[in-house]
Write a structure and sequence with these properties.
The protein is α/β, with parallel strands linked by helices. It is built from six helices and nine strands. The model has no long low-confidence stretch (mean pLDDT 94).
Length: 207
């Protein structure tokens, strides 16, 4: 009973506080976008590693002044917290993962792309292995012919958690470096070639 009460309270309070914290981090850092000026108007799959997820909404909002995206988020409690947090940035969610409930999640992602939504996904989420690309992003891109924008977020000052994804939290008063590719079409690639291309581009600025 106490656990249920704690979780219910956390779901009410933590996302709002987290959204304020993210806004403060963004406001107190310099920003550098090493990115194309435009990604076009067609639905796009935006992808980054799970450990670099925190500040991703701002890269997305650089391209879409009016957000129209669904982000694949774990159905676990931590995923529920993230889901409620990113709603403060105008982002919707698809609950589940491409490891568990894979078919349902993929079908919802494919439908969202066909309905004109962008998709946000962490290719190594929600539980790893770290920096390994699961099949979900490849399947969605191939089924819909949607292009992929690969995103890295590299702050000059940060805390790094000891979690499986080595989650990064920028410190204030540094610089947030956003790196993103031009839209990539993988429809003609074999699965392993697509996987390698995605991984290489997401690790391009890894120190």
């Amino acid at each position: 009973m106490a656990k249920k009460f704690f979780r219910a309270a956390a779901l009410m309070i933590v996302p709002f506080i987290a959204s304020i914290f993210i806004r403060l981090l963004y406001a107190t850092n310099k920003k550098k976008f090493h990115s194309p000026d435009s990604v076009g108007n067609k639905p796009i799959i935006f992808a980054c590693w799970h450990g670099e997820l925190l500040m991703l909404p701002y890269l997305y909002l650089k391209y879409r002044k009016i957000p129209h995206a669904k982000v694949l988020i774990s159905s676990h409690f931590d995923g529920m917290l993230i889901s409620k947090t990113i709603k403060y940035f105008g982002l919707e969610t698809i609950s589940g993962s491409t490891n568990r409930n894979a078919t349902r999640v993929l079908m919802q992602g494919i439908k969202a792309l066909k309905d004109g939504y962008d998709i946000g996904i962490t290719p190594d989420g929600p539980k790893g292995p770290r920096h390994e690309v699961a099949d979900g992003i490849i399947a969605m891109a191939k089924k819909t012919d949607a292009e992929i924008v690969l995103v890295e977020m590299k702050p000059t000052k940060f805390w790094q958690l000891k979690s499986w994804d080595r989650f990064i939290i920028p410190k204030p008063f540094g610089t947030l470096n956003y790196y993103s590719t031009s839209p990539i079409n993988i429809s003609s690639l074999e699965i392993e070639d697509a996987r390698n291309l995605i991984k290489e581009n997401l690790l391009k600025h890894e120190s």
